[in-house]
TrEMBL record:
Transmembrane segments: none annotated. It comes from the Bacteria. Gene3D superfamilies: 3.30.70.270, 3.40.50.2300. Its EC number is 2.7.7.65. Residues 169-306 form the GGDEF domain. PANTHER family: DIGUANYLATE CYCLASE DGCM-RELATED, REGULATORY COMPONENTS OF SENSORY TRANSDUCTION SYSTEM. The modification 4-aspartylphosphate is found at residue 59. Keywords: Nucleotidyltransferase, Phosphoprotein, Transferase. InterPro entries: CheY-like_superfamily, Diguanylate_Cyclase, GGDEF_dom, Nucleotide_cyclase, Rev_trsase/Diguanyl_cyclase, Sig_transdc_resp-reg_receiver. It comes from Massilia aerilata. Residues 11-126 form the Response regulatory domain. CDD domains: GGDEF. Pfam families: GGDEF, Response_reg. This is diguanylate cyclase.
């Protein structure tokens, strides 16, 4: 399927203070897309946050909050900043067009609208958006295991740290390292080691199943499980579930001095972000506890708070 074929079935938010304009755009788009609508700026922002549309068709001139202010607010919020906006307006001067594009709009459509032109412009923006989303997924995913990579982990940790800081909620982190993985590779071969890394990543996903949990490959045979809004007890539960998942998988590790099957060591730290604390503090604490788990005989978890 080509990118152009994929430029359908989008979720489009139409924002206009006149119902008849919304009806015209709805009629133009409804066969190819799901169409949401809002009659003013504040409602448009609320829908953008809760429904996360693929594209917004935005009237520039509205009473109260106008299209430019809506556009600015969309780009300022991380959860809506990646939604492309097409301005739809009766204003036609080059200055109006420049102002819309300067506000961050991806495109500009003049009223009265032509249905075929609207459909074509929407398809183009959807194609660009889907290509960008696919590229972003690619640069944030670890190719071997399919879980998040280090870059994705760093981004999410920063975001969750700020978010949980605002609400004074805990952020927990598990640093997980496979025991004696060098011996595993030496015994079973590197390709078998690769397969096993993917299996362990799958076990982690099953152990940390909430929507906001993030399993990431931190590097080599070390993984991180980020658990926003979960306290230490909850995090211990995830650690235990992971160990149980690995017991069930029962992957043999004949060369391990620790056990006949593949095991992991885990460091678990949990913090409520304070004014002068940094996300790196959480990572450092979990890493130090992981080191203790290794030194203490492996196949175990260690907890602690800083
Ligand atoms: N197959 C495979 N092996 C990897 C990959 N990344 C890292 N490794 C191996 O993971 C091993 C890590 O070894 P060490 O850091 O010495 O640790 P360990 O042998 O697991 O020992 P402990 O952590 O002390 O229990 C090295 O042999 C790396 O080659 C990978 O993508 N695939």
């Amino acid at each position: 399927m080509s990118w152009t074929d994929m430029a359908v079935n989008g979720r489009i938010l139409v924002v206009d203070d006149a119902m008849e304009n919304i009806q015209i755009l709805h009629a133009a788009l409804q066969d190819e897309h799901e169409v949401l609508f809002a009659l003013d700026g504040p409602r448009a922002l609320a829908i953008a946050r809760s429904q996360h549309p693929d594209l917004i068709l935005l009237d520039a001139v509205m009473p109260g909050m106008d299209g430019y202010a809506v556009c600015k607010a969309l780009f300022a919020a991380p959860e809506t900043s990646d939604i492309p906006v097409i301005f739809v307006t009766a204003l036609k001067s080059p200055e109006d067009e420049t102002r819309a594009l300067g506000a961050g709009a991806a495109d500009f459509i003049s009223k009265p609208v032509n249905a075929a032109v609207v459909r074509a412009r929407v398809r183009t923006q959807l194609t660009v958006k889907r290509q960008r989303d696919a590229l972003r997924a690619l640069i944030l995913t670890d190719a071997l295991t399919g879980v998040a990579n280090r870059r994705a982990f760093d981004e999410r940790l920063d975001m969750e740290w700020r978010r949980c800081g605002r609400g004074q909620l805990p952020v927990s982190l598990l640093m997980v390292d496979i025991d004696h993985f060098k011996l595993y590779n030496d015994h079973y071969g590197h390709p078998a080691g690769d397969t096993t890394l993917a299996e362990v990543a799958g076990a982690m996903r099953r152990a940390a199943g909430r929507g906001q949990d993030l399993v990431a490959r931190y590097g080599g045979e070390e993984f991180a499980i980020l658990l926003p809004q979960l306290d230490e007890q909850g995090a211990i539960g995830v650690g235990r579930r992971l160990m149980h998942e690995l017991e069930t998988l029962d992957l043999p590790h004949a060369a391990s001095p620790t056990s006949q099957r593949l095991t992991v060591s885990i460091g678990i730290s949990s913090m409520v972000p304070r004014e002068h604390s940094l996300p790196a503090d959480l990572v450092q604490a979990a890493d130090a506890l992981l080191y203790q788990a290794k030194a203490g005989g492996r196949n175990q978890y260690r907890i602690g708070a800083a």
